[in-house]
Amino acid sequence: MNSPLRVQELRKSYGDREVVAGLSFELVPGECYGLLGPNGAGKTTTLRCCLGLTAPDSGTIRLIDEPVPERAREARQKVGVVPQFDNLDPDFNCRENLMVFGRYFGMDDRAIAARIPELMEFAGLSGKEEAPLRSLSGGMKRRLTLARALINDPDLLVLDEPTTGLDPQARHLIWERLKRLLAQGKTILLTTHFMDEAERLCDRLAIVDTGRIITQGSPRELIAQEIEHSVVEVFGEDAPAWATQHAAQFSRRVETTGETVFCYLNDATDLLAHLAQFPELRTLHRPANLEDVFLKLTGRELRD
After folding, report:
1. CATH architecture for residues 5-224
2. Tens of pLDDT along 242-286?
């Protein structure tokens, strides 16, 4: 099977601002590929271009072996989309939402009806077929949106921040369902602000900022390549003063945010022994993770 999505030198500007600046990436069938980046990095514009909803200024896109935007409608017949915000029809119950959406793909009612029990079970919503939307929790609506995206048995599933606003139980259930889809051979393109979500689900990912790919690879590869092995977080109102006097002798890279000091190093033994002399400071020693890589490459400044 050819790549479900291939993007080469994609560019898109709004006025004088170039939102997507030469992005290139390619999905491997059966993988989960992540696009990570701060607000305004160009992720949503990239997704819209890939789906043929926004016309790019230049570059080439092939979605399910079709050129986009020229044949975007045909390509989307084999794509499922979970948008950032639920857009279920509040006037319909669960079954009706799935029925109406299936008709958009030219499916006949019998074929749609045959898929509904399986999809409702997959979403953990068995027995809720006739439930009105107002009776569903936020997590239930999100799972119904995922089920709706699967009505046409897509080759590629595009997920735009699929678990934003959900409680931990709902997030873990959706993660388990997505892993099940990957085991079945589906391909997933994921955007998320949850680094633990990306670490759990993504086979490969790209970190994007200012419309460009900064780095890409598997989560484990990026952590090994971009960051030290260990992180020691030092907390307390005296932590910044401690860092000014002592941190540099133990760690070549130190970041201070408010009353928290982050010390990045490969061996924390000497630093932890030193910190034991400062009982007024609280410490957390942990392995480096994808969030550390993300913050190193994109900065800690707030993005709006």
Report:
1. 3-Layer(aba) Sandwich (3.40)
2. 999 999 999 989 999 999 999 999 999 999 999 999 999 999 999
